[in-house]
Amino acid sequence: MADDDRILAAIRGADRYLNGWHGRPTMRERLLEIAEATVDDERPDNYGGGERIERLEARIAATVGAEAAVFMPSGTMAQQIAMRIWSERRGCRTVAFHPTCHLEIHEQKGYQLLHGLHGRLVGDPNGVITLADLEQIAEPLAALLLELPQREIGGRLPEWDDLVAQTGWAREREIALHLDGARLWQVGPFYGRDHAEIAGLFDSVYVSFYKDLNALAGAALAGSADFIREARVWQRRHGGNLVTMVPYVIAAERALEERLERMPVYLAHARALAAALATVDGVEVVPDPPQTPLFHLHLDGERDRLVDAALSVAEERKVFLFADPSSTGSPRRHRHEVMVGEVTLELSPDEVRDLYAEILARAAVG
Questions:
Q1: Fold identical between 4-25+262-365 and 45-243?
Q2: Which of 69, 144, 324, 342 has the smallest CB count inside 10 Å?
Q3: Are the CB atoms for 240 and 231 separated by under 8 Å?
Q4: What's the rounded Cα separation, in Å, for the pair 273 and 4?
Q5: Which residues contact 241 (CB under 8 A, 6 or more apart)?
Q6: CATH number of the domain at 4-25+262-365, please?
Q7: E runs forming strands in 67-189
Q8: Domain spanning 45-243 has what CATH number?
Q9: CA 207 from chain center: how many Å?
């Protein structure tokens, strides 16, 4: 298997990238932009207050159709706080979410160990939650968390009518609805609806600024005015009320201006790439066609050989495609994520198809 130094060298040495994540601006570029933007700032933020951060929070609230929003350093903090508030308001410690929910697989059981909550896993780990899955829940729930789109299964989404039915099921039972909208920005083109209409199905909404928009870091939690007032208290308890967050806020503002309206362009390119890649023997696109600018590629071959072949192509062609395929449960098939962003537009579908065909051929020879 390739070591981390080789992977890092391949990323740094590449001129073009398949994934928007790998082609993010360098820290130096971001910091220079932030420094330039703060030259005329006479009122920097202070412990969550200030003109700039309040303007951003108001913008997010308006975008998702909520009464208020609060900027937070991380989505992990935002979502655990949301679950804690809903559990206390409902007098119930059980919250429900998909088996691949970020709270379950990436946060070291923070919802349980920090907040004493119980997670009720819902649905097939390899598919989206369905109404039938929800109808099998017998115990009381404080909140239902739905992720749109679901990253770990290829950026997949339920159909609109199915989503409305699921949120309706929760409302009939007075279960709070929380949207993990880390990638909500991607969802509008699939549903043909704006962010406010989609988020309007939920009681609280989390959005990220760095995942699709390429800001430095940071998130926002939105909901009713009283919900956000309570969330600010929990933010301080979590240590998330920093003396200043102006670098993150400026980066978020710029990212919204630069990329928010580009999502339809990214989706169109994702579908063009997927159509070309689907013609390569040993490549499966999931889902096909992509529902968002994020999708998965399942590749035939042994992991070490795929990684070595991909890195060799990156070193020779200066195009970085992947180096981190995950297991699919079969030793002969592995998957990796494609997140289409601005840098991806520099790669034509035909070129990407040919590069993957070359990688699979090299991996087969080994």
A1: no
A2: 324
A3: no
A4: 28
A5: 47, 48, 232, 235
A6: 3.90.1150.10
A7: 68-72, 94-97, 118-121, 143-147, 176-181
A8: 3.40.640.10
A9: 9
pLDDT tens for the chain, 366 residues: list them.
568 899 999 999 999 999 988 877 666 777 777 777 776 665 668 888 888 999 999 999 999 999 999 999 999 999 999 999 999 999 999 999 999 999 999 999 999 999 999 999 999 999 999 999 999 999 999 999 999 999 999 999 999 999 999 999 999 999 999 999 999 999 999 999 999 999 999 999 999 999 999 888 999 999 999 999 999 999 999 999 988 898 899 999 999 999 999 999 999 999 999 999 999 999 999 999 999 999 999 999 999 999 999 999 999 999 999 998 999 988 899 999 999 999 999 999 999 999 999 999 999 986
Q: Tokens 């909500």: give the residue.
A: 184
Query: How do the domains of the chain map onto residue ranges?
Result: 4-25+262-365, 45-243
Q: How far apart are CA 26 and CA 23, in angstroms?
A: 9
* Assigned token pair, 238: 């979590």
